[in-house]
Amino acid sequence: MTLAQWRHWMREQLVNSESAHLDTDVLLCHVLAKPLSFLIAWPDYELNEAEQAQITALTARRQVGEPVAHLTGEREFWSLPIAVSPDTLIPRPDTELMIEAALARLPQAPATVVDLGTGTGAIALALKSERPQDTLIGVEFNAKAANLARLNSERLGLAVEVRQGSWFEPLAGLRVTMIVSNPPYIDAQDVHLDLGDVRFEPDSALIAEQGGMADLQHIITHAPHYLVANGYVLLEHGWQQGALVRDYFAAKGYQHIHTLRDYGDQERITLAQWPGETQC
What we know:
elongated, Rossmann fold, Release factor glutamine methyltransferase, HemK-like, S-adenosyl-L-methionine, methyltransferase, 7-stranded mixed beta sheet, 38% helix, peptide chain release factor N(5)-glutamine methyltransferase activity
C-alpha cells in the first residue's frame, strides 16, 4: 500500500481514539523518521517491509490504548523532545502553565529552582532552557525515573542536577528561590484511573492519600524550611482541589496565593509566596 493508503487504514483501525488522525500521523512520522510535510507531499511513497511491520505492530498497541508517547518513546514539552517511559508520567500541555507562571515570578538575577517529583525532568528542563543562568535541581524518588531525567538532561544539553530521594530529603541545608512540583494528587478511588493514558502510568506518580491531598500538603508544610524569604511554591493539582490547596497555603502562612486555570478552564496550578525568613 502507498503512504496515503496506510494513513487511511490506520485511521480506520484507530477509530475509537479521540485523536485517530493525530495518532496516525505521529506514528507514521516516527517510523519513517520524516516530518509531517513528507506525509502530505509524498502520498504515493511505498513503505518497505520493515516499515509496514512496525506500523502494524504500533497500530495494534495503540488500539488497546497504549499511549502514543510510550510507542514513540518521547513527548514534546515546551518545544523540547522529552524521552518518556512507563516509569514516569507523560508530560501534559497544561503543565506548561507552570513554566509560564515560574518565568513570570523568578528574579532577573540567577536563581535556584527545585522541581520535586521531577519524573522525566520536563519542568526543570523547560525552565533551564529559558533561564540557563539558573541552578535547576530535580528530585525524584523512583530510581528509573531519576535515570531517565538524567538522560533527558544529557540528550538536550541542559544542565539539571537530579537527586534521588523522597521530596525534601536530598535537599538538606539548601535554600532556594522557588519550588515547583506536579505531585501525585489523584484519589485512589477516582474512576478516571481506569481511563486513557493514566492506565499505563505508574500509580506512585498519580495516587496520593487523604483524597489526593497528602503530597500537596506535605510540600506546602515543609517548603518554608528550604525557601529564601519571598520565595515561591508552584503546585499542579486536580481540577477540584484549588480551594483546598489555597486554604492550606493560607493556613500555613503563605501570601499572594493565586490559582491558574488550564486550557480547559479548570483550576490547575496554585502558587503562593513565603513572606518571612527561612524557617529553621
